[in-house]
Amino acid sequence: MSMNFFEFREKLTARRDEAPAPAPMEAAHGSPAPTPLSVTQLTAQIDRAIKSGVPGSVLVKGEVSNFKEHRGSGHLYFTLKDASSCLACVMWKSDAERVKFDVRDGMELLATGRVAVYATQGKYQLYVTRLQPLGQGALELAFRQLHARLEAEGLFALERKRPLPTYPSRIALVTGRGTAAIQDMLKVLGRYPWVRLCIVNVPVQGDGAAEKIADALMRLSRTGARCGSVHVILLGRGGGSLEDLWAFNEEIVARAIAASRIPVITGIGHEVDTSIADLVADYHAHTPTEAAQVAVMHWRKAGADIEAHAGRLHRSVRGLVHDARRRLAMVERHETFRRPRDRVDQLRQLLDDRQRSLQAAAEGLVQRLRQRLATTEQGLAVAGNERLRRDREKLARMTVALSERHPRHAAGLARAHVAALDARLSAVMSNSLKRQTLKIDLLARHLIAVGPEQVLQRGYSITTLKKGRKVVRSADQVQPGDRLVTRLADGKIESTAEDQNQPGLFE
Questions:
Q1: Which of 38, 144, 179, 299 is the most exposed place for a label (fewest CB within 10 A)?
Q2: Phi-psi category of residue 105: left, alpha or beta, with phi > 0 → left and psi -120 to 50 → alpha
Q3: What is the distance between the alpha carbons of residues 19 and 27, in angstroms, rounded to a whole number?
Q4: Shortest CA distance to 156 belongs to which of 253, 247, 258?
Q5: CA nearest 232: which of 220, 216, 250, 249?
Q6: Alpha-carbon span 141 to 419, nearest angstrom
Q7: Which residues fall within 8 angstroms of residue 375, CB to CB, at 6 or more apart?
């Protein structure tokens, strides 16, 4: 069992080549045949040989190809290859979740795992537990990949960033409770007691920290959050290694910062540290202390600004008062205010002048209106006479035309037309009456010719039953005792039918 899989396979091949295969039921010299192995048994032996011959954990270097992620399970399937060989690899979802970078075809990786046989397909494969890119760290590669993707989406663009409030009165601190970062920020913010602070405790490193940070940012951004209407969010953490700060390089945190309705200031790590959260934030401070100072930078000089504004306001008011006093003195020295009756007399004289001017203008206007009225009356008279002359001529022409079209002419023509129509109608009716009379005569002659009277004249008779008046056409219609009426050309004969089987009276 100390040999590896390849030695075991060579040994089996050598044995098969040295001795010919025995007969199905018995081997050479009549000895019993060996018991055959099932495929499952042989596969299990090969698996044991591989596990005994190959170390439990191997480190393999190769290029990734045929990379696939199963949508349902989340497991990773890929192949590691070099210039002459390839190796099938599987990485379960629980191990794949710890890989921070995106695996792609063509990447050179170091894969750590164990070799085992996949019995269903009869092949050996590497069950990977850890992946590391060649030439650079896994976290560094993941940082570069996420940086490139978010930059392409425009999350780092300056035009997307929101302006910070000038005088924020409610600030939320998103960091770990009891950390050095929150102490540094409280040391700065404690100088401004009128600023209300809301501390949101979140883990700042370790598994699940990124999800909790993103959840805190989204809860603060919602309307009616527990902290009320926050004006700005400070996201801070002290220094540390890339692994310690990795929660702030997660995509979920970056997208939560970008989606926040409230401006976000980040102060993560030291001055040399720059995370994905810093690049997406509306303002990137290098330390938590700087983040707090940026949030209240206008409050620090608010007193000086108020004093400066008060000085400018005082000078402005003093200038306005001085100008008002000067104008009042000028008004007091004006001639009008020293002798106000002179101004009233001037206005009275001006009123008389305006009245005379108005009267003269009214008289001139009346005179012009009278002249225009006379001219208009004269024009109307001339136009009326001309119109009357034209109407009289038109009436004369219409009288002549009317006399030519008097109704008596039309009545005479209508009487002549009616007389002609009456004559035509009388002629048509007379001809139609003659034709109908001739037609009736012909029909009467035909009826007489085919009538029964003519038949009777030729010696025939018609016999009918007296009761019912039915014509006797067959002997079967007559019963003994029936009264018969026989019609001849010159009269009628009544008779009684007798039974033909009864002898006569004198027989």
A1: 38
A2: beta
A3: 11
A4: 258
A5: 220
A6: 124
A7: none
Tokens 């009289």 sit on residue:
392
Largest CA distance in the chain: 184
State how far the alpha carbon of 219 is from the alpha carbons of 118, 430, 493, in Å: 47, 116, 133
Tokens of 408: 């008596």
User: Amino acid identity, residue 25?
Assistant: M
Q: Long-range CB contacts (< 8 A, 24+ apart) of 6-9?
A: 6/53, 7/53, 8/46, 8/49, 8/53
What are the distances in angstroms from CA 12 to CA 6, 26, 38, 42, 488? 10, 20, 16, 12, 144
Beta-carbon count within 10 A of 102 CB: 13
Give tens-digit pLDDT for 293-316: 888 888 888 777 788 888 889 889
Q: How far apart are CA 109 and CA 101, in angstroms?
A: 12
Radius of gyration of the chain (CA): 66
CB within 8 Å of 184: residues ≥ 6 apart: 236, 238, 287, 288, 289, 292
- The pLDDT tens digits for 237-276 are 887 777 777 888 888 888 888 888 889 998 887 766 688 8
Q: How far apart are the first and last CA of the chain?
A: 155
Asked whether 108 and 62 are in contact (CB, 8 A), the reply is yes
Burial class (CB in 10 A: 0-12, 13-18, 19+), 417: exposed
Residue 504: pLDDT over 60? no
Check residue 26 and report its DSSP letter.
B
User: What's the CA angle centered on 470, arms 467 and 474, to 5 degrees?
Assistant: 115
Q: Are β-strands 491-496 and 170-175 bridged in parallel, bridged antiparallel, or unpaired?
A: unpaired
